[in-house]
Specification:
With 115 residues, the chain is of the alpha+beta class. The protein contains 2 helices and 6 strands. The protein has helices at 36-53, 74-84; strands spanning 4-7, 16-19, 22-27, 61-68, 92-97, 107-114. The protein has a 6-stranded mixed β-sheet, covered by helices on one side. α1 (36-53) packs parallel to α2 (74-84). It is globular.
Length: 115
């Protein structure tokens, strides 16, 4: 059986889980009072750091699940997402409106990436 690597593990979650050459990560914004633009920047910056620190990268994302508090924010979100994803490496992606864990969160992203 292939080992499971867990990074930043607490009682409730791990920051990153890696198994069989695949990395799993979820990220939320730091600034709950910020607008969708700042929250998106925070989440994408954090995701990029987590990917690169753990042997992956933005160009290795296989699948993305994007949760927006208000689907009307999709245009603002996509403006940043489209410049963040390197040309020709777009992952499979879903983007839905969802009730998020904290009232201040406007975006949450779940990624699966190759290592």
């Amino acid at each position: 059986m292939t080992a499971i690597t867990r990074v930043g593990t607490t009682q409730r979650w791990s920051d990153v889980v890696i198994h069989n050459g695949t990395l799993y990560v979820v990220e939320v914004p730091v600034s709950e009072e910020a607008d969708i633009h700042q929250q998106t920047r925070e989440v994408l910056t954090s995701l990029q750091r987590l990917l690169e620190t753990n042997g992956s990268g933005v160009d290795k994302i296989l699948m993305a699940n994007i949760y927006l508090k208000d689907i009307a924010d999709i245009t603002a979100f996509n403006e940043q997402w489209d410049t963040w994803i390197p040309a020709g490496t777009a992952p499979v992606r879903a983007c839905v409106q969802a009730r998020l864990a904290h009232d201040g969160y406007k975006v949450e992203i779940q990624l699966t990436a190759a290592v």
